[in-house]
Amino acid sequence: MSGRIEELELLLLAWEDGTLDDDGLERLRGILRTDEAARSHFLQMQMLTAALRLEGDAGLALPDVETLGVDAAPPPRKAPPSRDRARRAYRLAAIVAGLLVCLLTGRLAWLELTREPTASLTLTGRAVDQPTEEPTSLGIALVTQLVDVDWGDGQDAVEVGDALSPGRFAIRSGFAQIEFFCGATVILEGPAEIDLESAMQATVRNGRLRAHVPPAARGFALNVGDMKVVDLGTEFGLSVSPEGADVQVFDGEVEVQNRTDERRRVTAGRGLVRKPGGEIEETAATADEFVDFADLEARAQNQQDSRYARWKTWSESIRSDPRLIACYMFDEPDSRRRVLESSLLPTNPELDGAIVGARRVPGRWDHKGALEFKRPGDQVRVQIPGEYGSLTFACWARIDSLDRWYNSLFLTDGYEQGEPHWQILDSGKIHFSIRAHERKTKEAPHRVIQSPSFWKPALSGRWIHLATVFDIETGRVSHYLNGRVLNRQTIPKTLLPEQTRIGAAAIGNWSMPTKPDAPFAIRNLNGRIDELLLFSAALGDDEIRDIYENGKP
């Protein structure tokens, strides 16, 4: 018997006796939807069960079970039944087959349609609102570097990696590097304000910038009032203020056009100053007045070093927080040991995790460690004893893609009463649940609380901070992304456990096979984790924000 069929039968047994939880139900739906052999086996078993029951109730010997589509050994030879009795048996067999088709259709429909009220999963385990068309994105440029930026009034803060759509972009101070989709790169020095118009054009309202335009982006243009600076494959600087506009060419040449279509070429080492009255004055270029790419990179490295030092100081204090029950900082970039040391103070080696498969890689900073989860078995095995009340989960993760139905952050093995599951759906929703009742009861096992979908393609490969707070007193669950609340929902009192517990669990995956040849669900995270905190308390919004601010790279 194949592993998939064996798993199907175990799931069906649990379903029949009312002990199948939501995760098992989703797995059963997925098998029946995607595996033709499993559907055929399900039909055969249902038909055989009903046929045997009918035979026992009616005292009839049905014809060869091969007519019902079931493989079985030939029955012992018996005296041929009477013609009428055989006729009745065949009619009953036909009725059985028809009823079983209806039964199968009904059961599959039940599996298709029934789910938790708050869940949004169909038979395939994918979200109902999962897009069926090819994903698309918007934007004409990307933010690729931010150094000491203070955002201007009315300007929404953006992150490195964000795509910029046409519109106003302003910074009060600091430096922002923007790469246009045409290939041109601009370093903007605050205070500055520009209007992004297309992948080939922008209008500079005020501020100072340096642009690098390779041959592939030749023709990139910047507008300043009634003047246009068209690049002809070069590197140049542009400064705009109430005193006028200053164009300086450091390499190659640009063409400066005015409203009368007068055109001037400015070559390397030269510049043009346009006065408020429109007068044009030629000058020599002063490249050192504009931040170049090497200088920006050095400033960015200094910013990284400063933030890492701040995180190190903060992490030393948080490790001794009495509310922490598990703390893993992953701060061992060069260690060859297959152990993830607990970072709690005072130290407790019993909380050390066992690394299985996962690979040590750089974390948020080059000199900080992380673990990469890629293969189906990659995980960190932990054992966390004790009983608790409220819980808070927080981690820094770099997700490459959400290509599993469930993408594990932290999952308890058995998911018994009081044990939590924290993961991300392939639709980009944070998924939290905690089992309220023992498996032997007929009551609903839990209420799943999901966030709105936070995932977008631009987040791939970027470090993000995820957190979920479960308040056992009120039943409220809050999900967070980068220190900000995504949503809050309340679990009904009837679905709240009296206590919470962890026990055996996995970081970045779920459980392990219970038998040597048993299949296991593929729930490993496709990405990296470089910090995970678990508190026995419901942290407030300000505390979650503080964790994010002190840890952002």
Give me the secondary-structure topology.
Layout: H1 3-16, H2 22-34, H3 36-58, H4 83-113, E1 141-151, E2 163-164, E3 167-180, E4 185-198, E5 201-213, E6 221-224, E7 227-231, E8 234-241, E9 244-251, E10 253-257, E11 263-267, E12 270-274, E13 280-284, H5 293-318, E14 324-328, E15 339-340, E16 353-356, E17 359-362, E18 369-373, E19 379-388, E20 391-399, E21 406-412, E22 420-425, E23 430-434, E24 449-450, E25 463-470, E26 476-481, E27 484-490, E28 500-507, E29 527-535, H6 541-551
Parallel strand pairs: 5-6
Antiparallel strand pairs: 1-2, 1-3, 3-4, 4-5, 5-8, 6-7, 7-10, 8-9, 9-12, 10-11, 12-13, 14-29, 15-16, 16-19, 17-18, 18-29, 19-28, 20-25, 20-29, 21-22, 21-28, 22-23, 23-24, 25-26, 26-27
Q: What's the short version?
A:
The protein is α+β, with helices and mostly antiparallel strands and 553 residues long.
Describe the structure in your own words:
With 553 residues, the chain is α+β, with helices and mostly antiparallel strands. It folds into three domains: 3-113, no CATH class; 141-291, Jelly Rolls (Sandwich); 307-551, Sandwich (Jelly Rolls). 21% of the residues lie in helices and 35% in strands. The protein has helices at 3-16, 22-34, 36-58, 83-113, 293-318, 541-551; strands at residues 141-151, 163-164, 167-180, 185-198, 201-213, 221-224, 227-231, 234-241, 244-251, 253-257, 263-267, 270-274, 280-284, 324-328, 339-340, 353-356, 359-362, 369-373, 379-388, 391-399, 406-412, 420-425, 430-434, 449-450, 463-470, 476-481, 484-490, 500-507, 527-535. Strands 1, 2, 3, 4, 5, 6, 7, 8, 9, 10, 11, 12 and 13 form a 13-stranded mixed sheet that branches. Strands 14, 17, 18, 20, 25, 26, 27 and 29 form an eight-stranded antiparallel sheet that branches. The chain is elongated and about 85 Å long. The chain starts with a helix and ends with a helix.
